[in-house]
Amino acid sequence: MNYQPQDFLPIFVQLAAALAFIVLVMVLTHALGPKRHSAKKDDSFECGIESIGDARTPISVKYFLVAILFVLFDLEIVFMYPWAVNFKQLAWNGFYEMIVFMGLLLAGFIYVIKKGILTWEK
């Protein structure tokens, strides 16, 4: 299949429309929004809770490990979706490749379980 530059025109038009919408909305919100400032209003807060103390309190590394593992194992869907769409064209060779891919993911998951990364209390 030989693609020509004009084949990509709808994608560029949609991208330009999306960027124009983003710029327009940002300009309008800054231009039309209220501009009242005060010490109380400009104070930082998290979910309505006032900030008290140092922001550099120690946080358990478990939270970060769970977040990274979620991204890692959730990202497999990005690879599985095109495989599922092209399942018939890939035939048995594609099936075997996906078995290897899923086996590697399973091996990683077993490693995570054996290391106790997802165990919160000891």
UniProtKB/TrEMBL annotation:
Listed Gene3D superfamilies: NADH:ubiquinone/plastoquinone oxidoreductase, chain 3
Subcellular location field: Cell membrane; Membrane
Catalytic activity: a quinone + NADH + 5 H(+)(in) = a quinol + NAD(+) + 4 H(+)(out)
A single GO molecular function term of this UniProt record: quinone binding
UniProt keywords, alphabetically: Cell membrane, Membrane, NAD, Quinone, Translocase, Transmembrane, Transmembrane helix, Transport, Ubiquinone
EC number: 7.1.1.-
GO cellular component: NADH dehydrogenase complex; plasma membrane
InterPro entries attached to this UniProt entry: NAD(P)H_OxRDtase_bac/plastid, NADH_UbQ/plastoQ_OxRdtase_su3, NDAH_ubi_oxred_su3_sf
Enzyme class: translocase
Membrane-related topology note: Multi-pass membrane protein
Annotated TM spans: 12-32, 63-83, 95-113
Residue ranges that the Swiss-Prot or TrEMBL entry lists as coiled coil: none
HAMAP family per UniProt: NDH1_NuoA (MF_01394)
Its biological purpose: NDH-1 shuttles electrons from NADH, via FMN and iron-sulfur (Fe-S) centers, to quinones in the respiratory chain. The immediate electron acceptor for the enzyme in this species is believed to be a menaquinone. Couples the redox reaction to proton translocation (for every two electrons transferred, four hydrogen ions are translocated across the cytoplasmic membrane), and thus conserves the redox energy in a proton gradient.
Binding partners and assembly: NDH-1 is composed of 14 different subunits. Subunits NuoA, H, J, K, L, M, N constitute the membrane sector of the complex.
Sequence similarity: Belongs to the complex I subunit 3 family.
Listed name of the protein: NADH-quinone oxidoreductase subunit A
Organism for this UniProt entry: Aquirufa nivalisilvae
